[in-house]
Amino acid sequence: MNNSESSLPQPAPIERVQLARHEKRPYALDFIERLFTDFQEIHGDRNYMDDPALITGFATFHGRPVAIVAQQKGRDVRERQMRNFGMPKPEGYRKALRVMKMAEKFGRPIITLIDTPGAYPGIDAEERGQAEAIAVNLREMARLRVPIVVTVTGEGGSGGALAIGLGDVVNIFENGVYSVISPEGCAAILWKDATRAPQAAMSLRLTATDLLEQGIVDRIIPEPGAGAHEDWDLAAKGLDEAIQTALKEIEALPVEVMLEKRYDKFRRLGAVLNQ
Fold it and tell me: Mean pLDDT per 10-residue run, the chain (275 residues)?
C-alpha cells in the first residue's frame, strides 16, 4: 500500500466486517483454482462423515507439493446450505487434522485458508465433540514438523477459525477480520442490542491493522480497489506472493527452531505486561 492510498479515508471497522462478508468476495475454491495445480481433494474424517464446509487435499504450488486446508462458505443458496455457510462441524476439523498429519508424514508444507463465521454451534456438533475436535487441532498443529502458512481471506470467527489457524506465519487480507466473536454477537451480549454492532466492532479491534499491531497476524495482504471482490485475479496474486514469502522465511529455519518459534508466537498472545 503506497502513501497516497494510506492517506485516503479508511473504512470503519464495521465496514471491514461487511467487506469480509461480501457475497462476491473470492472464496477458497476461487483461490485454489488460481494458485494451485493438480489439486486432489480428500474427503471424510475416517470416523463419521465428510464435512463440505472444510476443503482438504493435496496440490502443487510453484512446482512443489503442498497440503491445503480451507473453509468454504458457498456461493449460492444451495451451496451455502450444503457447506453449512462455512461453519465446520467436528468431522470437518478431524478431516483437516487427518490431512495435516498426512502432510507431516510426507514432508509437505500446509497452507490453510480461513473464512468462517465460526464453528457450527448445533446440538449435533456438540454431541460429536466440537470443542474437543478444535482443542485437539490446536495441540497437534503446535507440533507438526512441517511449515504451516495461515491466511485469513475473509472472516475469521472464534475457535472455528483458530482450529486451522495455528501456524508459523499468519497472513490476513486487508479487509479480513479475525475475532473471538462477531460484532453482532458481542453487541447482543453486552447491550442486548445487535444494532450496536458498529460500536462492538470498534471495541473488538478485529481489523487487519489492529491485529498486526497486536502481533496476532504477521502480514497484511493488500486488496485491489474497494476490496478483493473487485478483482479475484489480483487478490490471488497478492496471496500467492504472501505464501511464497512465508514459505521462504519458514524453511530457512531448522525444524526445532521453527517449532519453538511457533509455540512462543501463540503463547505470547493476550499477554499483558506491567509497566
Answer: 56 95 96 97 95 97 97 94 96 97 97 96 95 96 98 95 96 97 94 94 95 94 95 97 97 97 90 59
Joined grid coordinates for residue 253? 529455519
Tell me the Ramachandran region of residue 66: left when phi exceeds 0, alpha when psi lies from -120 to 50, beta otherwise.
beta
Q: Smallest Cα–Cα separation from 114: which of 61, 75, 183, 160?
A: 160
Other beta carbons within 10 angstroms of residue 113's beta carbon come to: 26
* CB neighbourhood size of 240 (10 A): 17
At residue 257's C-alpha, the angle toward residues 254 and 258, to 5°, is: 85
Helices (H) then strands (E): counts for the chain: 13, 8
| pTM of the predicted protein model | 0.93
Backbone phi, psi, residue 216, to 5°:
-80, -35
What are the distances in angstroms from CA 14 to CA 4, 17, 21, 71, 200?
Answer: 23, 5, 11, 22, 9
